[in-house]
Amino acid sequence: MSASTQITVLVFFWTDAEKRYYNSFMPFEELPHTADWALRVLAPSLEELFSEAARGMNALSGAQPAAGAHLRRVFAAKAPDPESLLVLFLSELVYSAEQEHLVFDAFEIELKGSELNVNMAGAPLLSLNKSIKAVTFHNLQIHKTEPGFEVEIVFDV
Fold first, then answer.
1. What is the reported pTM?
2. CATH number for the domain that contains residue 39
């Protein structure tokens, strides 16, 4: 994992009723949802989509890591499709925050067919504004787009 930070601003126009602006510094946006939280994530690759989904979930819940040394963990999963792998990955992060009081914020992700391998770095949880109970499959579908990939994720809170 690199310590350098790259900030690039990109603008994409959706064919929906309104134009939406996409900033690669925060490649996710909270979506209005009646009872739960929803998040739209955009990324140039499937691996980056998983990373940004995790960062977006952390941002929604207000998960803040404590300062100091990071710990490392490996997560591996097999599932029949990328959507199931995404739910398994994000659910592991929800578990880590809720049960172990850890937040992970740096990810090296490798996807090979139905297998996911993640090397992640994190720290003890300093603060959490609101807990996520579950990552849902509600309308979950990863779409291939011209600039990369897009997904909308609904969280039960």
1. 0.79
2. 3.55.10.10
